[in-house]
């Protein structure tokens, strides 16, 4: 579904991503794990068209997309939940969701998307007329995921969805990711929470200082002694 080939991305003279290659097959959950500054967010932003690569290709469903603009990439079926959630304060839950529907023109389709999202996240329905800023961290993360789902993406990019959440909400978010995948959404999951990400992933890649160091199935990486030492603290 998605193939990243020899991708390099710079910020000025800083080389954040150095010749990274990986792929995501339709129906998979693929996780990219790695320490702070490894280049994970940079990769996600480049796939979603917010950054342009210095070199390399991103091929989505057979087409090169690395020169496409972000709205075009969303239209093609790739939706992103950015790190830090970016909920719009001063706007209600409904209004935040509406922003996710910017590409949809058909009112009935938009209503259908709301209904689906409220079914997945009953708490959002309950809080639909509330200022989004008053939601808890976990509820905001659900709203951010809900907003990304308004366009019914084929490929969902999740950048650190568990960040800053309580253990209970982390469990909930991972369960939601698994369920979305089971219902047909392909997922690229960026996580610092390596253990839980690998546990639900079909495959994973370990990124360090802008390069891929290891790859394998979720299970292989979970039991890899090097991964255990560096990422699970023991
Ligand atoms: P984290 O888990 O901390 O978000 P990450 O793996 O997502 O880390 P990136 O945010 O992709 O890492 O950053 C990769 C490298 O690029 C880091 O060295 C970072 O300091 C640098 N970097 C990121 N954004 C910028 C920017 N806007 N300008 C300059 N350097 C940047």
TrEMBL record:
Tell me one Pfam family matched here.
ABC_tran
Task: Fetch the PROSITE patterns from UniProt.
Answer: ABC_TRANSPORTER_1, ABC_TRANSPORTER_2
Q: Which InterPro entries match?
A: AAA+_ATPase, ABC_branched_ATPase_LivF/BraG, ABC_transporter-like_ATP-bd, ABC_transporter-like_CS, BCAA_Transport_ATP-bd_LivF, P-loop_NTPase
Does the keyword field hold Transport?
yes
Q: Which domain of life is it from?
A: Bacteria
ABC transporter domain location, by residue? 2-234
Q: Which family does it belong to?
A: Belongs to the ABC transporter superfamily.
Can you name this protein?
ABC transporter ATP-binding protein
